[in-house]
Structure formats: C-alpha cells, structure tokens
C-alpha cells in the first residue's frame, strides 16, 4: 500500500487481499495505513502458502526503501492503484 507515488509505503500479509485493501482504502483499519494515508495498492505478490508469504514479508521489511520502490516501478511504473485489477 502507498500514500501516492514515492509516498509512504506499507507492507503486510493477508489471506484476503481484496477485502483488506478495501478496508485500508476506506479508513476502516486504525493504525499506520490510516495515519499515513496509505490507500493505494501499488504492488503485490500472491502465495499459496501463508507461511511462505509471511517469510517474504519479513524479508522485505528489512529491505531499503529504494529496493521497494524499484520493485514497484518495475511492475507498476505509473504507480496505478491495482485494487480494481483484483476483480
């Protein structure tokens, strides 16, 4: 999730990407994303195994911000909100 192009970034794991993104977009989740306006889904990876997804999350949370931005821009150079692509 992002607040906008090159804005604040949030990284998390969920078993319901569409539902969780909806919650973040509509300010239904108190905390970091609401405080920082992270309402755009700009990048995601899908996993069949939740434990594998959690390992990837922990790995990426150690990354430098520049690496995360590089990953977003590789797959979504215009920083489009990908929420609509989930349906």
Automatic annotation (TrEMBL):
It holds the Pfam family GIY-YIG. It comes from the Bacteria. InterPro entries: GIY-YIG_endonuc (IPR000305), GIY-YIG_endonuc_sf (IPR035901), UPF0213_domain (IPR050190). Residues 1-70 form the GIY-YIG domain. Belongs to the UPF0213 family. This is GIY-YIG nuclease.
